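Why run this: before we spend reagent on co-expression, it is cheaper to look at a predicted model of the complex and decide which construct boundaries make sense. The entries below are exactly what would go into the expression plan.
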Amino acid sequence: MFATAGNSEPTKTTSYKVVLPFYSYAAFAFLVATILLFLSAGDITKHYFHPHTLAITHIMALGWGTMMILGASHQLVPVLIEGKLYSNILAYVSFTLAAVGIPLLVCGFYAFDMGLHTQCGGILIVLAIITYLINLAVSMVKSRHINVHTFFVLTAALWLLAAATVGLLLLYNFTYLLMPKSSLNYLPLHAHIGIVGWFLLLVMGVGSRLIPMFLISKYNNIRQLWWIYGLINGGLLAFVFIFLYSDSKLLLSIPLLAVATGIAFFVNFCSKAYQLRIRKKVDDQMKVSLLSVLMMLLPVIFLVIIVILMILSPKENIYLIITYGFIVFFGWITAIILSMTFKTLPFIVWNKVYHHLAGKGKTPNPKDLFSNTVFKWMSVVYILGFVLFTAGILLHSTISLQFASALLLLTALLYNWNVIKLLVHKPYL
Amino acid sequence: MINVITNNNIKIRVALAELQNVMDPEIGLNIVELGLIYQMDFDETERRIFCAMTLTTQFCPMGESITDAVKETLKSIFPNWDATIELTFDPPWSHEMISAEGRKFLNKK
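The model came back. Tokens follow.
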């Protein structure tokens, strides 16, 4: 009736020592980004290539988004591939390289100094990604369970390497003129490989596994996930090709349509998973995660408007482009991290603190290790700050931007308060 | 829930009742109602307990804690017995293994 593997020990998951540095770093980076946003709220609407905007964008993309996803993926990839992480040492190396590289790069951007230390930062980040990619690829090769989710994650990591490499080339292009045009011209290429190839693909790959799992949903549609995979990757490849080899703005509608369809399919996948859930009670963290899935549609709407305006007029609308960037990094990427942190970190901390007491006495529930009230307030303040800041950019309202940035800073403070509460948790017993 | 194979109904009933205190912390439901226990045997001559179980997902971050809790629970109610916990993912766990009671709990809004 049952095939037993003759194994009395469950297969070990990734050590908390590997994962916690990534989470801590990301939480701190989010705080730094919101402090800088608060101090530079007026500069944000000047141009998307403004030094302060560049610095904040890269703290959000690398320090916050990427570091958190790298940390979580070291924990979650074993769940996806049903195999062990290949090397903890490679994970430490990856963390160290990125942890040193990111501030070097960001400080360079903030001062608009693209010199040696900024270049070193860029090189360290590329090396960190290569290390992560090796760890991921070997873990997957060693696992016998290759599935659609692993394709999402591995392809996303390859796009991340591509985005970072293009970014490094753009950095060197400031000093050595390696490319036919100025770095500013290639910014959409670098940004979209990162946003669509890395963040979107990875969140979809992991989310399509975790959302039905947390909801205990009866819904699963592997065929739909393969369609999403094809549409996102096909759309991004088409964008890269059109960007490099064509001046036609009209052609950009092809990749836009492909990616938008992929996102619509993913929203539909999550919606069906939600409708067919067995677990009717949905916790606050899942509610914010599901909201972040809906928030994926916002940048698509903005991108459609931007592309239509580009087709109609050669002059780019700076405000719309800045809004688009803001709703990507402070929108769905931030929302999913704010929520998923508290679906993963409490369990990692619980295992660290209470594992040895399992079955020997009463232990608190992982969900009790952080304050859900603080989480709720954080979510409300975040949504208010996000909406107000978006309105502030579109209406060119400095007062609105300043107030919204204060709300986002408060979000980061509340988030860090809960993360620190978890990280310093001591056993009750 | 898959029917637990029995060779000693009273002991198994006691063990399953105690194992209802072992919770899946994410779902908030105990592992018996969740259908994680596949098989339980008591070897009276060797005084050994054999328990085959699964997890909702392989490499579940809480997996080790759950199996340790099962082992400790069995050892606490049968102190002079040796408990062996064997993990299996064949068949893999699915929502169909949740008991009627478990479904009722999860259906609460």
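Residues 318-354 of chain A form the longest helix (37 residues). Chain A touches chain B through 41 residues (CB under 8 Å). Bring this page to Monday's planning discussion.
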